[in-house]
Automatic annotation (TrEMBL):
Domain of life: Eukaryota
Keyword Oxidoreductase: yes
Enzyme Commission identifier(s): 1.1.1.27
Active site per the UniProt annotation: 178
Transmembrane residue ranges: none
Positions bound to NAD(+): 13-18, 38, 98, 121-123
Species per Swiss-Prot/TrEMBL record: Tieghemiomyces parasiticus
Recorded family membership: Belongs to the LDH/MDH superfamily. LDH family.
Catalysed reactions listed for this entry: (S)-lactate + NAD(+) = pyruvate + NADH + H(+)
Keyword terms: NAD, Oxidoreductase
A GO term for molecular function: L-lactate dehydrogenase (NAD+) activity
Name used for this protein in its record: L-lactate dehydrogenase
Amino acid sequence: MPAPTPAKIAIIGSGAVGSTIAFSLIMNRLPAEIILSDIDTRRAGGEALDLSDATFVSSSSVRVAKNQQEVGQCDIIVITAGAKQKPGESRANLIDRNYHIMQSVIKGMQPINPNAKIIIVANPVEILCHIAQKLSGLPRNQVFGSGTFLDSARLRLSVAEMLNVHESSVHCYVVGEHGDNQLVAWSAGRVGGAPLLSFDQFKNADLAHIAHEVARKAYEIIDRKGATYYGIGACVASLAESVLYHSRRVFPISCYNPESECYVSVPAVLGNDGVQHAVQLPLDDKEKAAFDEAVKSIKSITEKYN
Ligand SMILES: NC(=O)C1=CN([C@@H]2O[C@H](COP(=O)(O)OP(=O)(O)OC[C@H]3O[C@@H](n4cnc5c(N)ncnc54)[C@H](O)[C@@H]3O)[C@@H](O)[C@H]2O)C=CC1
Ligand SMILES: CC(=O)C(=O)O
């Protein structure tokens, strides 16, 4: 399906993550009018000027939002506005600060385009999806988060290196929470149709160690350089592309799961009306128990924001 030309993509929060998402959209040559918004309007203006120097590679354009109402009328609204983790700090610890920011962001852009897709990137993603959906009043399938897409990309890289194959041939997901309660669905992992765990390199592999390294990668990057942004930039550009082109690609994203009665990260099909449906991953008993723990943890926080 051809993309609407040009789609309006708003990015709220033009810090490290927001501006890198804009750069990734431009590099992916999405036919989009990218509209930056930030409480720090001077910073947003500077990012727009800098990014506009890169638009010659694509048919995208970039500018600063006229006002918040304009942002609310966009086709896709990416929300990165929020506090980020200090070295060693968990994502869950950001909730108090980022709840208030999310409230002001959603309130400021009312009335919201009833067809808009809101992509939550600020942390903690699953909890902020719940809050954004409630406050925006949009249908649940139109509000989703980048979730464990980035964690899964980290995992696939690690597996690909072990097996000496390309990452795109590794089908293995991190699910549950984009946070400390994430888990790897090892038993459902496949490479070229074969179970991941049947490969020689995985027969005696320390799976817990690999999963731990994947989960700790963000902490290590933040410890060394203060923030992560390239990976999430690439992830969000892929999500936007699947929405604009109705690609129906499967991504591990934070979406509302009726069975769990909360937002949780699972593989889901993404098209032009948002989340089409989740894919039921067959988990073994240990993975199922870990998934249930993640759901329990997410629900224990979201219930404070009902
Ligand atoms: N989901 C994921 O995989 C990832 C999520 N993140 C999260 O993304 C968020 C942003 O991270 P960075 O860009 O590194 O932080 P940053 O500090 O560079 O940028 C945040 C921006 O939000 C703006 N902002 C704050 N309150 C606002 C408001 N009410 N309205 C509009 N703008 C507002 C700030 O002025 C700032 O420019 C953090 O919560 C971080 O944890 C970061 C990396 C990956
Ligand atoms: C910061 C963050 O959430 C990440 O890089 O995974």
